């Protein structure tokens, strides 16, 4: 269990309390965790050991690959852009079913642009409120989830394992009927799991932009309001989240029933 010396919302702290079971300790990756264990609105629970999320996995060690084998992770979805992925190729098990889903990622700003974007404000709100790439980015994941063999697991990731990966997890948990507060707790927990990485990133931005670290942190930290932007934008364009699932992800009522059968108990 993580021992935290910072103030956290109650729901997020409750999510972190099971981190001994949730977090997969890797030598070459951070924010690698199981998406299972969450209670759904209909009294069930998301199964453990089937769906995993992570940050960059280009530096996995041989020991880490053994962990992937033990957890039967032979299917991996990568949400990074083409150049982003080429610069740090995933280190995975041989014969892994690997799929790159770069929609919208190649247009993400680089470090040199971040300072100006932070100064302009609301960068993350705009990113989460943009529905343009959601279907192309996330449909492959949901289609894989539908047909994943019972004895296999799946992992998806981006670079930080927080924004693109966080949205994927929010949509997956929503499809299973997990309460919004729980979805938001899983989402904001990345602020804690990524503390060391974030600190280095914030310090680098501080040096390159001249802004103070607190301003940068506030601009980039994950907040429930970002998921509100995501779901509100979806509702604004499609009427309901369910319409979005059916039109863009190929997940209608029948497919959602399959997901609940496979990933809740």
Automatic annotation (TrEMBL):
It comes from the Bacteria. GO terms for molecular function: phosphoprotein phosphatase activity. This is Protein-tyrosine phosphatase.
């Amino acid at each position: 269990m993580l021992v935290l010396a910072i103030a956290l919302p109650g729901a997020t702290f409750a999510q972190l309390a099971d981190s001994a079971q949730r977090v997969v300790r890797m030598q070459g990756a951070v924010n690698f965790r199981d998406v299972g264990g969450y209670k759904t609105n209909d009294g069930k629970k998301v199964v453990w050991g089937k769906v995993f999320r992570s940050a960059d996995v280009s530096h996995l060690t041989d020991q880490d690959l053994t962990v992937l084998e033990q957890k039967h992770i032979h299917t991996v979805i990568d949400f990074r852009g083409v150049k982003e992925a080429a610069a740090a190729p995933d280190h995975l098990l041989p014969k892994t079913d690997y799929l790159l889903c770069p929609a919208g990622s190649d247009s993400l700003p680089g470090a040199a642009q971040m300072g100006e974007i932070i100064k302009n404000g609301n960068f993350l709100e705009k990113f989460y409120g943009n529905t343009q790439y959601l279907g192309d980015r996330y449909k492959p994941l949901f289609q894989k989830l539908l047909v994943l063999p019972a004895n296999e697991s799946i992992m998806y990731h981006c670079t930080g394992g927080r924004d693109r990966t966080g949205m994927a997890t929010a949509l997956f948990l929503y499809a299973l009927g997990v309460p919004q507060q729980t979805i938001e707790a899983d989402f904001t927990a990345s602020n804690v799991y990524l503390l060391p990485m974030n600190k280095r990133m914030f310090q680098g931005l501080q040096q390159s932009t001249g802004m103070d670290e607190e301003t940068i942190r506030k601009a980039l930290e994950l907040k429930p309001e970002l998921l509100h932007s995501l779901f509100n934008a979806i509702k604004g364009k499609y009427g309901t989240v369910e319409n979005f699932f059916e039109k863009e992800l190929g997940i209608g009522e029948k497919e959602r029933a399959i997901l609940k059968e496979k990933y809740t108990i």
